[in-house]
Amino acid sequence: MDDYRALENLLFSYAALVDAGDFEGVGALFAEGAFVGSGGTFRGAEVARMLRDNVIVYEDGTPRTKHVTTNIALEVSGDTASGRAYFTVLQAVPGLPLQTIVAGRYADRFTRTADGWRFTERRAAVDLVGDVGHHLRPRP
User: Fold this and answer.
1) How confident is the model at residue 1 (pLDDT cuts 50, 70, 90)?
2) N- or C-end of the chain: fewer Cβ atoms within 10 A?
């Protein structure tokens, strides 16, 4: 598999794990890197904890979301790479129609390890916010 396809698969793995409610799996993606968002900087198990503390999970064990990653631009230079992408998060919960709840941008850095490509850093910037009341727990 070429580097670009491997990096795309890493991007899509993040989305699939979040949508499956596998927050431990998401944390594992950042075991050697950091997730940076409006709530701060998190690594490994901290990422999993941040998601568990903030994302509402429904009876099926998922947040009832689909993270759609588009406009992917990747640059590879030896054992490092960088990337940019847009994200759009859709959600459908009982009693409410399918809706877009948030959209924004990722700025990513990657490192190739013996086990393949890994996140070094993901910066998530939110550009548009819809009704996240069924997705995020209220902050105290």
Assistant:
1) low
2) C
Is 36 inside any structural domain? yes
**In sequence order, what are the residues at sequence separation of 6 or more whose Cβ sits closer than 8 angstroms to the Cβ of residue 45?**
27
**pLDDT at residue 130, as a whole number:** 97
Report the domain count for the chain: 1
Whether residue 21 is contained in a domain is answered as: yes
What CATH number is given to the structural domain containing 31? 3.10.450.50
**Domain-located, residue 138:** no
Q: Which two tokens stand for residue 74?
A: 């990747």
pLDDT digits (tens, 9 = 90+) for 27-70: 999 999 999 999 999 999 999 999 999 999 999 999 999 999 99
pLDDT of residue 91: 98
Check residue 61 and give left, alpha or beta (phi > 0: left; psi -120 to 50: alpha).
left
pTM of the model: 0.95
Q: Return phi, psi of residue 107, to 5°.
A: -120, 115
* Three-state helix/strand/coil letters over 63-108: CCEEEEEEEEEEEEECCEEEEEEEEEEEECCCCCCCEEEEEEEEEE
CA-CA distance, 81 to 112, in Å (whole number)?
8
